[in-house]
Automatic annotation (TrEMBL):
Its cofactor is Mg(2+); Mn(2+). PROSITE patterns: AP_NUCLEASE_F1_1, AP_NUCLEASE_F1_4. This is Exodeoxyribonuclease III. It is an enzyme of class 3 (hydrolase). CDD domains: ExoIII-like_AP-endo. Residues 4-253 form the Endonuclease/exonuclease/phosphatase domain. Gene3D superfamilies: Endonuclease/exonuclease/phosphatase. Belongs to the DNA repair enzymes AP/ExoA family. The record marks 253 as: Interaction with DNA substrate. It comes from Candidatus Bodocaedibacter vickermanii. The record marks 223 as: Important for catalytic activity. Coiled coil: none annotated. Keywords: Hydrolase, Magnesium, Manganese, Metal-binding. GO terms for molecular function: DNA binding; double-stranded DNA 3'-5' DNA exonuclease activity; endonuclease activity; metal ion binding.
Amino acid sequence: MKIATWNVNSIRSRFDHLVKWLHQFQPDVVLLQELKLMSELFPHEQLLDEGYQAAVLGQKTYNGVAILSKHRIEDITYGFENNPLPEEARYIDALIDGSVRIASVYVPNGQNTESPKYPNKLKFIDALRAAVQIRIYENTPYIIGGDFNIAPHDLDATNPDRWKGDVPFTAAERQGYNQLMHLGLHDAVRIKHPYTSQSAPDVMSWWDYRGGSFEKNDGLRIDHILMCPLATDMWTDAGTDRTPRTWEKPSDHTPVWCDLNMTQY
């Protein structure tokens, strides 16, 4: 099962890109973030024509998350308990093909450390950890992917000095992320490309639109696929697909993916 996550930065603006990429990459499950439209306006029929069912939690103008799947989608959960931002569409999970529960998450950006949005981001991460812990205890393979808006390590930036002391690089954000990981989660991409100074090939997933960041490869790794131990046992491969970021008028993010051998479960 090939699973990918992609912050499309408006599905209306990037729908043609999405369909083109689905044809090329052929993922089984795709987690989307920043849909920027209401649930009822989501292009279900067009994606069914491409072979994908969809579970959607949308919001007008902002946020929005979805799960696309070639396999059966069941038992959908919208949001999670004690979410400090319940009015924002930032989390959805579902049971896929009766065998693995997969979540799409869009963690708040936080803007900057002086913004009131920053403590809300930290509260969101803390509440998310509690929700993930419940899922892990259910003893079903669980995977959460999405735009976490956190670079967990200095090597998750091409130019770490540029980001020191600012989001998504602050100690508090990383502490929250690490506490999430301490539940027993494993980073799909870093299994293949561990944290070393020789951690090429490139695994960055976001590049600013300004200043030719993509052309300079001045990026961040803030999109992640995290797996519970049961899911990690099925892991076979992972990476980042930079191709859509080279297309005209792209999202500022590019897909991150992993492969699972479902016969091992």
